[in-house]
UniProtKB/TrEMBL annotation:
Keyword check for Ion transport: no
Domain Nucleoside phosphorylase residue range list: 23-269
Species annotation: Flagellimonas meridianipacifica
Alphabetic keyword roster: Glycosyltransferase, Transferase
Annotated pathway: Purine metabolism; purine nucleoside salvage
GO cellular component, one term: cytoplasm
EC number(s) recorded for this UniProt protein: 2.4.2.1
Biological process terms in GO annotation: nucleoside metabolic process
Source domain of life: Bacteria
GO molecular function: purine-nucleoside phosphorylase activity
UniProt key word Glycosyltransferase: yes
Protein name in the entry: Purine nucleoside phosphorylase
Signal sequence region: none
Family named by the database record: Belongs to the PNP/MTAP phosphorylase family.
Amino acid sequence: MTKKQVEESLQYLKKRGFESPEIGIVLGTGLGQLVEEIENPIEAHYNHIPYFPLATVEFHSGKLIYGTIEGKKVVVMQGRFHLYEGYDFLDITYPIRVMHGLGIQKLFVSNAAGAINLDFKKGDIMLIEDHINLQGGSPLAFKNVVEFGDRFVDMSEPYDPNMRKKIEDIAERENISLQKGVYVSVVGPQLETKAEYRMLKILGADAVGMSTVPEVIVANHLRLPIVAVSVLTDECDPDNLQPINIQEIIEIAGKTEPKMIQLFKELIKEI
């Protein structure tokens, strides 16, 4: 990755009308309804943006969408890239660098995750307070990283406390049940064994997924304040583990998503 590549991506998007967005939003698996809230949308398919990772079959609909939500200019990633699809950390996080180059001041991230904390139930929303990286690498571990920022990045508070507090206040005001906890990111795409769920619980994780952490590391590298939420789509109880039902997971994500959209829209209004 070079600065020149990022610049070419930015030139393409600016020519299409992507001008000075304030907020970037990354939508997780099964969480695409927010795009219906965007006014005057301009779309750019990933396959058309110079140096963007080439979309896999699953990502033929993957696109960046620019427009307005609650009077603020936003750029939304509909579909993200994952390690389990064969992308590397630079691919996965390239869109974050591009959105930052366009001018975003804040980043919102969502994902679908499994509940390891058995006090949490499927259909809950969890505000991510901290994370554990079990993906076996870093999006900052490349030779010319110093062209883009400091090599060593502080991660003592990776999720912005001010936006977290606002989300908590909004949830209370709007009567949305909100859990808080630690998200652990694994490679996937296979789900965990009973023994692995037990291990993740011992490590201190409340929810598990296969995304988000690389984007958060790069956002911190860019000094970009970030807030992230998980929609909990299944319960990972090793003593009562049921075979995974992907269709049910997508269904629960869809049912819970309106609450997440409400949280994000109210937060957009307030910042």
